[in-house]
Structure formats: structure tokens, C-alpha cells
Write a structure and sequence with these properties.
Chain B: InterPro entries: Fe-transptr_FeoA-like (IPR007167), FeoA (IPR052713), FeoA_core_dom (IPR038157), Transcriptional_repressor_C (IPR008988). Chain B: Keywords: Iron. Chain B: This is Ferrous iron transport protein A. The structure holds 2 protein chains of 2 kinds. Chain A is α/β, with parallel strands linked by helices. Helix content of chain A is about 60%, strand content about 10%. In chain A, strands 2-3-4-1-5-6-8 form a 7-stranded mixed β-sheet, sandwiched between helices. In chain A, strands 7-9 form a two-stranded antiparallel sheet. A two-stranded antiparallel sheet of chain A has the order 10-11. Chain A is elongated and about 100 Å long. Chain B is mainly β. Chain B is built from 2 helices and 5 strands; from the N terminus they run E-H-E-E-E-H-E. In chain B, strands 4-3-2-1-5 form a 5-stranded antiparallel β-sheet. In chain B, a hairpin with a 6-residue loop joins strand 2 and strand 3. Classes of the chains: A alpha/beta, B mainly beta. Strand 12 of chain A pairs antiparallel with strand 4 of chain B, so a sheet runs across the interface.
Chain lengths: ~700, ~80
């Protein structure tokens, strides 16, 4: 424990910083949140030479220490706060060999904070390919640092990097340049007013737009003899600072780096010519989306059926093996079917995150942003809204967090508000099971009706999102700066390790996050379904027996009648029938009603709830789907899940705002209850009306 | 009239001369959009907007509106 050091990984986006993190920590990493905010905090542990242990934090990517978003702010807040328990003993700045000049801007800023700083130059394997050569000794001398030349793709240089980190005490803490030269008088007065503070740190605190919480901002305003500057003046000084830093960097690189352009091979231009083409660009994008949906539907159906049947037999096995009693019933009828309802999505979620990770890693996502910006702007969105709208097909929560890099507040707010319309993976199990029940099998043009229905539902979600954005854009009276800067990174072959770790991490957090809610709800539901008040429930056996005394029912049929009588008079049955009048016009019975109510916690609870309700009292080993198919409509007779009620249910789930976690994240990101409440009310009312119309027309 | 970045045609190059307008975000400067640096229009999105640029080796896309505040001197085709 004594020798653990804090290492902060810092760097521009697209430099392979996360690859370095993965190479250092492997599976010894965890993802959490910074306290109070929803920025992802990635940390891990790495063993260094000579028994030194390193605690490594992968900080959000940033181009400079002038934060323009919550994510970037995390970086500065950590670097400025020496009391933070994560305050780095060493800052490792990750850069990539092709964009060294731009990456060094951040490096020189961090050097000014007098933290031991190490420069990592990643993607060294591409140097000869790009005709770049570096004079490492020269660079080390003039940048006053040590340089680790590595390639995470080839796994080269990692041991050397670990060695350099372990010897962090040898690193220089002298700044590369004197930033205060941009305005000597101003910086002199700053120094006089705060003699005990690091000058560059003061400058950063003064210039940040973002609120720094406890960091010394108040102190600065409080000192009387210090003349503050206007915002415009400060911005001009920041521009001057940036220019000065680039002058320094250009001078260093003039000698330290040579680029032979004739040696450079350029794949970018070739790919860009097709992928951002005004026709082919869109066609390719469409086909990529098509492939994703096909994969989610077709490729994951086999493992899903497998999981479904495993949980059904597990329930059965528990019932047979454990002694009869309330606990066995709770396990077999409450917990196991409830858990089955979540584990079953793992294949699909994994596929979704896999595709999204590949699109991001390869650099293709930026091209989509570029292609879509003009189109999206017509609807009050930004090209960058495409990323949340696509990742919203996995889960609205990370999607809403992904809106942070949208610069304009209005465009960002609209994106946050409409993202929950996109078909998230929690809707999938509901869609899949209902589609399987009510849409006939069969194919048209090689595509199955069922897959087409699913695609149509995705399309409806997307169109609704865009259309409501259009309306919001007209209604919302918000003026905000609209600017838009997006880096177009080089195309890269996604690294297996990075993609695999992302998929594992995201799937895990989804399953455990949703799993907890589902588990709790299914236990509660089981209790409500297994117990009831009064004679009608407790005396069910006698009531049913005397009712059917004249008919000669088999023992099994009688058991069935008793079970359903009990369910109807249990706590859940009573509640369900109380809300039935509201949902009957949509074609649902009280059991579906209960499932809808409980799925306001999270949509995927729907299937788990029905599974729990149906399995209470039934002895046979049955899959969820078969149980649902055999449900009978209490009023009309015939199957409960018909084409009309099925479509109505699908549409209800397409539009309704049923996810507490999303509402919580919207509250956090917009910093007000107004927006999540509006979302909940408007989306759910709309869902009800559409489902009502659909059922009444199709009935 | 002074040329701005928004006047570049596909493949054309220029040298940035002035970025002092308050409509230019600092982030853009940090990415290398500074006086004296070369800039080339790599590609235009459909509807001529946004613009895909190569500024001194950094590839990025910005909207035409922002581009119209960045003054340049054209140096013609490559």
C-alpha cells in the first residue's frame, strides 16, 4: 500500500488514450461516476517495476485546459486541486504521432502547472507509413520531459512506459515557456495579489467559464487591490496565449520532427471520397444501419431462445429439488423468471454496443456527423445529435450523456428531449415477444415480416424524435451561440481489446443496473400476486370447488381454475382490476395493466412482470412466450394478444416515457425538473392516444 | 472585399490571416486555426455546409457561418 502512486492519463480525443489505459490496466479497471455529476470516471490499477503500484485514472479527452464542457472540466478540477485524493503524482500526456503539434498544446499547459509530466507518443507504428521521423533526444531536451514512444496496436513500448512512470521523480517540473509574457503588467499584479499561489493555476481559475465549486474563485473576487479584466479582454488574452504556445511548439518541432510528404500514404482521402459522398455517403450509412438491425434481430435470436429455455427449466428444477414452501415459490416464481427477463437481453445489448463501439473507434462516426449536420439543423438539431440518436438505440442514458459535446445549448436541449423516442434496447424484449405473438411468420423479398416490423418500429421512433425536434425548435425561445467544431480523425481499424472491453463494461453495467430494479420489482410483484385480502382469496379452493361441483373437471383443470381465481383476488389482481377501465379501450387486460405500471420503472420489466404474474400458480415448465400466447381475453374471448391489441401495445411502448433512470439523467443534465416532467407527461399522453386510435381502428 | 474561409472552393488552399472575431470559438484556435497557418477545403457536405477542412495537418469540420468570420488569403489550387 505504501508505494501506490496516482497516475493521470490526459490527452486529446482520438489519440488512443483509452488504448493506453487498457494496455496498462487490462481487466483491472472499473468505471464509475465522479461524485455528484454523471461524467464517467475510469480508473484502474497497474503493477510497475520494483514493486510500485500505480492507480491510473483515464481522464476525459480534451484539447486544452480551457474547459468548454462538463467532461473537460473534470480534468482541470483534478489538476488544480492538490487536496483531491486522486491528485496525480505524475501526469501522462498521450499524443498521437500524426497530430503531435496539436497535442503538444495541452502538454505545455500541463507543464505550467508544475506537475511531473511524461509525454507518450502513441501510434509510433504509423511513423514510417506517414513519412515522419522524430529526434527524441532533441524533443526531450526542449520539452523538458521524458518521451515514451509506443504503439498500443502493436503492443510496443509498454514496458518502457511503465518504467518511466515508476521513475516519475526524475521528471522535470519546469514549465516549457513563460505564459505570463502575454501581458506582463496583468500577471505581475496577479502575482502580487496572490503571492502564495501558482501563477498559471490562477490564470486558469480566472478564465474558466465553468463554475469551479470550492476552488479558489471566490478568493480571487475578494481581493480588493486586484483589477479584474472584462470577458472580452480575457478572451483576447487566451487567444494570445494559444498563439504563443503554438509559436513555441512550432519552433521545437521545426528541428525535432521531419515529415517527408512524398513518403506519406493517404488512405483518408480515398475513404472520405466515398464515405462523405453526397449520394454514396448516405447509401452506405443506411446499409450500415440495416446491418445493425438485422444483426440484433437475427443473430441474437438463437442465444436468446437458449437463455429463455434455461431459465424455464431452472425454475422447474428449483421447484422439484427444494422442499415446498413460500421461499421455494418466491425463488421459482418470482426471482428466477424476473432475472430471466433481464439476462435474455444480453445478446442484443452486446451486439448493439459492439456496433456502436466499432463505428466510434473506426472514425466513421465523425463522417456521419459531418454528413448529417445540415439536415439535422433543419430540425433544430446538430450533426452531433446523430451520435446520441444512434447510441440511444442501445440506451438513452449514455446517449443523453453523449450530448455534452454539442456546443449550442438549444440544440443540446432538444437532443436530450427527443432522444428517449429512439428505440432503446429495453424496448426490444417487449417488441420481440409481442411481434412473435401477433405478426405472422413469412418473408417478403428475403426479409421476414417480423424483422420488417421491428425495423418499422425503429423508424417510427426515429421519425418521431426528429419531428418533435422540429416542433420544439419552433416553440422553444432560447438564444444560444451556435458553433460547431468536430475533429475528423484518421480511419483506424478498431482494436479488438478496446471494443471487447467496451462491450463487456457496458453490458455489465446495463445488466446490473437494470437487474437490481427488476429483481426488486419481481419480488414485490410475487408477494402481491401470492397473497390477498379477505375470503375470496383465502378460501379460493372451496369457492371454486363448489362453483364447479356439478361439472366433472379433471384435477388439473380444477387446479388451474383455483390458481386463476386466487390471482384475480390477490392484491395485484385487485389493483389491476382497479386500473382496468383506463386501459381496456387500448385492448389490454389487467395483467398487461400491471406490467405497464411496473414498467414505468424500466421498460424491460414488462416481460419480467408478465413472466412473474403468469408463473404464479402454474406448475408446468413453460416459456414466457407460450404462456402469453395462451392467455384469453376475459371479455371478448379468443386470444388476448391479437393483431390489434399487439399493435396498440407496440405503439404504446414506442412513445411512452417509461424509464426512471432516463428521467433522473435528464434532470441532472438540464439541472431542472421542468424538462423531465414535461417529457413524462407529453410522451405518455401521446402514447396513450396513439395506442387508443390504433386499437379502435384495428379491432 | 477580403476573402474568408467560406469562399474557398473544394481543393483550394489559403493562408489564415485573421481570427480575432468574437464569433470564433477558442476551441478552433486550439486546434490550430491561427494566423499564418495553411488551410485547405477538403470536402463540402451536401447543401455546401458544413465544411471539411485541413488546417495545418489537423482535419476538422466547421459550419459555414463560423468559417465566414475567419479571414484568409487564397493561394489557389494544389
Amino acid at each position: 500500500m505504501s508505494k501506490q502512486i496516482n497516475v493521470a492519463l490526459i490527452g486529446n480525443p482520438n489519440t488512443g488514450k483509452t488504448s493506453v489505459f487498457n494496455a496498462l490496466t487490462g481487466l483491472n479497471q472499473k468505471v464509475g461516476n465522479y461524485p455528484g455529476i454523471t461524467v464517467e470516471k475510469k480508473e484502474g490499477v497497474c503493477k510497475l517495476p520494483r514493486g510500485v503500484k500505480a492507480h491510473i485514472i483515464d481522464l476525459p479527452g480534451t484539447y486544452s485546459l480551457n474547459a468548454s464542457s462538463l467532461d473537460e472540466n473534470v480534468v482541470i478540477e483534478l489538476l488544480l486541486n492538490k487536496k483531491d485524493k486522486d491528485f496525480p503524482d505524475i501526469a501522462v500526456v498521450v499524443s498521437d504521432v500524426e497530430n503531435l503539434k496539436r497535442n503538444l498544446l495541452l502538454f505545455t499547459q500541463i507543464k505550467d502547472l508544475e506537475i511531473p509530466t511524461l509525454l507518450v507518443i502513441n501510434m509510433a507504428d504509423r511513423m514510417s507509413y506517414k513519412g515522419i521521423s522524430l529526434d527524441i533526444d532533441y524533443l526531450e531536451e526542449h520539452l523538458q520531459t521524458k518521451i515514451a514512444l509506443i504503439s498500443t496496436r502493436k503492443g510496443q513500448g509498454i514496458d518502457n512506459l511503465k518504467n518511466l512512470i515508476a521513475n516519475y521523480k526524475d521528471l522535470s517540473i519546469t514549465p516549457c515557456l513563460n505564459a505570463s509574457e502575454i501581458d506582463r503588467d496583468y500577471f505581475d499584479s496577479l502575482r502580487k495579489a496572490f503571492p502564495n499561489q501558482l501563477l498559471y493555476k490562477l490564470w486558469l481559475v480566472i478564465t474558466q467559464d465553468v463554475n469551479f465549486g470550492k476552488t479558489d474563485r471566490n478568493e480571487i473576487d475578494a481581493v480588493a487591490n486586484f483589477k479584474t479584466k472584462s470577458k472580452g479582454d480575457l478572451k483576447r488574452l487566451q487567444q494570445k496565449e494559444t498563439i504563443k504556445r503554438y509559436q513555441f511548439i512550432n519552433n521545437v518541432l521545426k528541428k525535432g520532427q521531419t515529415i517527408d510528404i512524398s513518403q506519406a500514404k493517404d488512405l483518408r482521402t480515398k475513404f472520405d471520397r466515398i464515405l462523405t459522398h453526397k449520394v454514396w455517403g448516405y447509401v452506405i450509412f443506411f446499409f450500415i444501419l440495416l446491418t445493425i438491425f438485422q444483426a440484433i434481430y437475427d443473430w441474437s435470436s438463437v442465444p436468446m431462445d437458449f437463455i429463455d429455455s434455461i431459465f424455464a427449466s431452472l425454475s422447474e428444477w428449483v421447484k422439484n429439488m427444494l422442499p415446498d414452501g413460500a421461499f421455494t415459490n418466491l425463488l421459482a416464481e418470482g426471482i428466477i423468471p424476473g432475472l430471466g427477463g433481464i439476462v435474455i437481453f444480453i445478446p442484443q445489448i452486446a451486439f448493439l454496443f459492439l456496433f456502436i463501439a466499432v463505428l466510434e473507434e473506426s472514425g466513421y462516426m465523425s463522417r456521419v456527423v459531418f454528413l448529417m449536420d445540415r439536415v439535422m439543423r433543419r430540425f433544430g438539431l446538430s450533426g452531433k445529435s446523430v451520435v446520441p440518436l444512434i447510441s440511444g438505440t442501445a440506451c438513452a442514458i449514455p446517449a443523453i450523456m453523449a450530448t455534452r459535446n454539442i456546443e449550442s445549448w438549444k440544440e443540446r436541449l432538444i437532443t436530450i428531449l427527443v432522444t428517449p423516442f429512439t428505440t432503446c434496447s429495453a424496448r426490444l424484449p417487449v417488441y420481440l415477444i409481442i411481434i412473435a405473438l401477433v405478426i405472422p411468420e413469412g418473408r417478403i423479398l428475403g426479409l421476414s415480416y417480423q424483422a420488417l416490423t421491428l425495423m418499422l418500429l425503429y423508424l417510427i421512433g426515429f421519425v418521431t424524435a426528429v419531428f418533435s425536434a422540429y416542433i420544439l425548435n419552433k416553440i422553444l425561445k432560447i438564444r444560444s451561440k451556435t458553433f460547431f467544431v468536430v475533429e475528423m480523425p484518421n480511419y483506424k481499424l478498431p482494436m479488438f481489446k478496446n471494443v471487447a472491453l467496451t462491450v463487456i463494461e457496458k453490458t455489465k453495467s446495463f445488466v446490473f443496473g437494470a437487474g437490481k430494479i427488476i429483481l426488486a420489482i419481481s419480488i414485490v410483484l410475487w408477494f402481491l400476486a401470492s397473497y390477498g385480502p379477505g375470503d375470496a382469496f383465502n378460501n379460493a379452493e372451496n369457492i371454486v370447488k363448489s362453483e364447479y361441483a356439478s361439472q366433472h373437471l379433471t384435477k388439473e383443470d380444477l387446479q388451474q381454475k383455483i390458481a386463476s381465481h386466487k390471482l384475480e383476488h390477490s392484491f395485484i389482481g385487485i389493483t389491476g382490476r382497479a386500473i382496468e377501465p383506463v386501459i381496456r379501450p387500448l385492448g389490454y387486460d389487467w395483467k398487461i395493466g400491471i406490467a405497464i405500471v411496473s414498467s414505468f420503472a424500466a421498460r424491460e420489466v414488462f416481460v419480467g412482470t408478465l413472466a412473474t404474474i403468469y408463473s404464479v400458480g402454474s406448475d408446468e415448465e413453460e416459456t414466457i412466450k407460450n404462456r402469453m400466447a395462451s392467455e384469453v381475453n376475459p371479455i371478448l374471448g379468443g386470444p388476448l394478444f391479437t393483431f390489434a391489441s399487439g399493435i396498440s401495445l407496440l405503439l404504446f411502448y414506442a412513445f411512452a416515457m417509461q424509464c426512471m433512470s432516463t428521467l433522473a439523467i435528464v434532470k441532472k443534465e438540464t439541472n431542472s425538473w421542468k424538462w423531465p416532467v414535461l417529457q413524462l407527461v407529453i410522451m405518455t399522453t401521446f402514447a396513450y392516444i396513439v395506442a387508443l386510435i390504433a386499437f379502435q381502428f384495428l379491432k | 472585399m477580403q476573402d474568408t474561409l467560406a469562399h474557398l472552393k473544394r481543393g483550394e488552399k489559403g493562408i489564415i490571416t485573421d481570427v480575432s472575431s468574437i464569433h470564433i470559438p477558442l476551441k478552433l484556435l486550439e486546434m490550430g486555426c491561427l494566423p499564418g497557418n495553411s488551410v485547405q477545403l477538403v470536402q463540402l457536405a451536401p447543401f455546401q455546409d458544413p465544411m471539411y477542412l485541413n488546417i495545418n495537418g489537423t482535419h476538422l469540420a466547421i459550419r459555414k457561418e463560423t468559417a465566414s468570420h475567419i479571414l484568409i488569403e487564397k493561394i489557389g489550387h494544389e
